[in-house]
Amino acid sequence: MALLDMAVWHWMYDHPKATPAELKAATLRLAKETWNRYYAPVFKQRDVTLPAVYSHMIRDILYLPDYPIGHLMLFRSKRR
To answer: How far is residue 74 from each of residues 43, 69, 78, 80, measured CA to CA in Å?
Structure first.
């Protein structure tokens, strides 16, 4: 979800006058692209829009990338 969250925010910065319908279409497209790149090789299914279900990712400003970064930091701190 963090990858999609960042892609959507990049898209919004590149399209500041986008309508809600354009944002929805872009989010679904980006969800498919993200899925196809990272998950389709593992799950053998393409064009899944499941990552786009996190509609709160736009309202709550870039908090989703904090999850994987936080897990990496925690993992690293436990190895010391």
So the answer is: 28, 9, 6, 11
pTM value is: 0.74
CA–CA gap between residue 8 and residue 52 (Å, rounded): 10
Report in angstroms the alpha-carbon separations of 21 from 1, 17, 43, 70.
Answer: 20, 12, 29, 33
Task: Count how many domains the chain has.
Answer: 1
Structure tokens at 74: 């925690």
pLDDT for 10: 92
* Strand (E) or helix (H) holding 73: helix 66-78
**What does the chain come to in residues?**
80
The domain in which residue 47 lies consists of: 2-78
Q: What is the pLDDT of residues 25-58, one digit of tens each?
A: 999 999 999 999 999 999 999 999 998 887 666 7
